[in-house]
Design a protein that fits this description.
7 strands, alpha/beta, binds NADP nicotinamide-adenine-dinucleotide phosphate, Rossmann fold, single chain
Length: 245
């Protein structure tokens, strides 16, 4: 038996339209799963020119997760769900996260939506004895001076992950998380697209390179698989050693 064969399984990746979530979605698809993704744009055509999006073979639904009512109302085009990956995330620059409106928006997208989506799919995950994986951040483990909301939301995601893991283990749902280091996506291009900032960032990563969506997908695959059957409530730091340095 191949523990990484997801044939016959259904996976939903919230935030699977771009970047890390998209890499995770395509990885599960390559391993046999039927994969659904949520994103913000109207339809798949709207992602055609995006370098961070490959929606080939994925089933797409538009849901703005900042709005809990939209999550609750979102159509679920599958009867069974085995793996829920929550990779949605946003960040605001230019001190917008120091304003109440900006702070609240980032918390809504990065933290509150994790709980609303988890609740929505709890019954299906319990029926399938499935698993949920949250995508937090290395930012959960150090301060990020310009982004108080991002930091609070990712630290919150870390706490929510271990708490839902304990609360839902007896329902047959294994909850774990991933805390990525620095991965080039549209969220981080403000750093990775600036040669000086990029060089500074790379100096702080012992493995000497940025992470890739595939690096994150490998860990998601492991966490959702029977290889991780006794791993519960853990948020795995996947940062090339960034926080060691
Ligand atoms: N890149 C990094 O270095 C890094 C490091 C640590 C943690 N992370 C975390 O990894 C996750 C993925 O981020 P990424 O770097 O891959 O960035 P990304 O490419 O911008 O992906 C973010 C995803 O979240 C979706 N999203 C954002 N706001 C949403 C909303 N209101 N409603 C529904 N979906 C929404 C985006 O949809 P659209 O495609 O429609 O925009 C996209 O699918 C995030 O949680 C992020 O915080 C990233």
């Amino acid at each position: 038996m191949n523990a990484l064969d997801f044939s016959g399984k259904t996976v939903l990746v919230i935030g699977g339209s771009s970047g890390i979530g998209n890499g995770i979605a395509q990885c599960f698809r390559r391993h046999g799963a039927e994969v659904h993704v949520w994103g913000t744009r109207t339809d798949t055509a709207a992602y055609r020119d995006s370098p961070d999006s490959d929606l080939e073979g994925l089933q797409y639904t538009q849901v703005d997760v900042a709005d809990a009512a939209q999550i609750d109302a979102a159509k679920v085009p599958f009867a069974r769900l085995d793996v829920l990956v929550q990779a949605q995330g946003t960040v605001l620059y230019a001190r917008q996260e120091f304003e109440t409106e900006g702070f609240r928006h980032v918390l809504d997208v990065n933290l509150t939506s994790l709980m609303v989506c988890a609740r929505k799919f709890h019954t299906q995950l319990s029926q399938s004895q499935g698993s949920m994986i949250t995508v937090s951040s290395a930012a959960a483990f150090h301060s990020t001076r310009g982004n108080p909301a991002y930091n609070a939301s990712k630290t919150g995601a870390f706490g929510l992950t271990r708490t839902l893991a304990e609360a839902w283990a007896r329902d047959g749902i294994r909850v774990n998380g991933i805390a990525p280091g620095l991965v080039e996506t549209k969220l981080t291009r403000v750093t990775t697209g600036n040669p000086e900032r990029l060089e500074g960032a790379l100096r702080g990563i012992p493995l000497g390179r940025l992470g890739t969506p595939q690096d994150m997908a490998n860990v998601a695959l492991f966490l959702a698989s029977p290889l991780a059957s006794y791993v519960l409530g853990q948020t795995l730091l996947v940062d090339g050693g960034m926080l060691l340095a």
